[in-house]
Structure formats: C-alpha cells, structure tokens
Amino acid sequence: MDQGRGGEGFALHAWVDESMRAARDGREGLYLLAAVVADPEACEAVRETLQMLLLRGARRLHWRDESGERRRKIAAALGALDVAHVVVVGAPIDHRRQERARAICMERLLYELDQLGVREVYLESRHSSLNKRDIRLVDALRLRGSISRAIVVGFALPNDEPMLWAPDAVAGAVSSARFGQDVETAEELGAIDIIDVRLA
Questions:
Q1: 5, 33, 43, 90: least CB-packed within 10 angstroms?
Q2: Domains, in order of start, for the chain
C-alpha cells in the first residue's frame, strides 16, 4: 500500500472482521481476525469496486455465500486495490472460549495496526454487550501501554459500510488456505501479513 503522502495529518484507517474454523482432519481449529488497512481519502474507490461486485439484489458481499468462481473474482479485485491486509490467526480454538480467543487476537492485531500508523479501527458490530466487551478490552490495552492512546476503535455494520466486506473476504480466504483449500484464491489477494498466536 502506498504510504507516500506523509504529513502530520496523514493517518490510516482499518476495518476488521472475524472468522472461525472448527478442527478437522487433524488440523487445529482456528480463530482469525482480519484487517484491511487503507488511506481513508482513497476509500471511495475501494467501496465502488466492491459494490460493482454485488450480485443483483444483494445488499452486501459475504464470503461464505459466494461460489468458488465468485470468490476468485472478489479476491482478484481486492488484490488490485491499494490496501494492505493484516491477519492474526489464533489456534487452537476452543468454541466454549471464543471471547478469550478474540481478546488474545485483538490485542495482537491492534498492536500491529498501531505500529502501522492506523488511527481509526472499525470492527464489525456485534450485540451491544459484546461491543462493550471489546471497548473494555481496548481501554485495558491502553492502560497497559500495549497500544497508544492515538488509536480509536469503533463499530460499523456491513450493510452500511462496504469496507467491511473486504476483511470478511480476506479472513475467509486465509482460513480456507490454512486448511489446504482454495489456496490459489488466497494468493489472488497478494501480500498478506499473517501473524500466528497460540491460544493454548
């Protein structure tokens, strides 16, 4: 991603979505948090590209609902955009402790985004009580000095914000590739910064 504009006012934004995959065929279950990082001033072109990929009558792109051919097309479109992909992969996932997995992966992801100069992060909104849990985590990370006070975390809905369609696709593609499926589709996304963390 081009970060050449520089200047005091320059700050990146990131949009984040999660994905999970149950253990199977001897492979550990995974919890993933994917972020797509972009210059906010260039996001309208990204949104337009994503909206052009919508099927007639669809309100959003959703990776799990797309065919293999459509997934390759979406991944190729994302790979051609001026965005960066960061994915934290946690394993092994215990589905009874999903929120613990999210907290561990979120701490690492926010640290990485902070280091990149991201100043606004938008998580896909969940239930209000779960959103509050995320904000408590962010506050705790700031108090511990794990992330700076400059990074702001908020929420958005995929029906309102097409930028969230991108991390949904990235998380889905990386998850499949980790299980040896559709590896070529993930490769269409281009460079992805993947960080592995142990959950147990």
A1: 5
A2: 12-198 (3.30.420.10)
